[in-house]
Design brief:
The protein is α/β, with parallel strands linked by helices. It is built from 7 helices and 7 strands, in the order αβββαβαββαβααα. The radius of gyration is 17 Å and the shape is globular.
């Protein structure tokens, strides 16, 4: 059975060649829920999910957040667009996560409960899709902070670019002047409603 699943998985991804990068999505205890693979093709980049439980190239019905082990012990979490950006911030000792699928994700089908009780900051990519992604998450979660990208940054500038150019990322995400108690109260209410809708949508 294992060999069959492995062969089937390979046949579903061979059309894209070898994955450029792979990421593991786990729960807060490190148990794997899903994998995400990036492929750089002639037509651009493509993302392929793998549902570990179903053993299929698809998103889990309820999509997990990235870096849940890190989220578990963090007070503040920065939501970015994609695992590459999240990893760049994590390497700078900043707890970051992303919804599985990035800007193309279905926000209502994402499990946001790991963020309950956290101060939530959203760092959008510097383009229309990034802002739409940020606003969609903010509307779903409640009183989260959407960072305003500096005017001198180019289109599509993101957290990964910021780290690469030596930008002061820690200073940029420092929004401690906001009331974390208000954020936690509003987010807990929103998150509870959000996950209820998520579970209904996935039935």
């Amino acid at each position: 059975v294992e060999n069959y699943v492995t062969k089937k998985r390979k046949s579903q991804t061979n059309d894209l060649g070898v994955a450029t990068k792979k990421w593991k999505y786990t729960d807060a205890d490190g148990n794997i829920i899903a994998n995400g693979s990036r492929y750089d093709t002639e037509n651009g980049k493509e993302f392929r999910p793998w549902d570990v439980k179903e053993k299929k190239n698809k998103f889990p019905e309820i999509r997990p957040l990235y870096n849940q082990v890190g989220i578990k012990s963090a007070d503040t979490v920065v939501i970015v667009e994609g695992e590459k950006c999240a990893d760049a911030l994590i390497a700078k000792s900043i707890c970051a996560t992303t919804a599985m699928g990035g800007a193309n994700t279905t926000v209502e089908k994402t499990d946001w409960l790991p963020l309950v009780g956290k101060q939530i900051i959203i760092w959008p990519d510097n383009d229309e899709a990034g802002l739409k992604y940020a606003k969609s998450i903010s509307d779903n979660l409640g009183n989260a902070t959407i960072l305003e990208i500096p005017n001198d940054k180019p289109s599509k500038w993101d957290a990964y670019d910021a780290v690469e150019e030596g930008f002061d990322v820690k200073g940029f995400v420092d929004v401690t002047d906001r009331s974390i108690n208000n954020i936690m109260h509003n987010c807990c209410t929103k998150l509870s409603n959000s996950i209820t809708k998520c579970r209904i949508a996935c039935i």
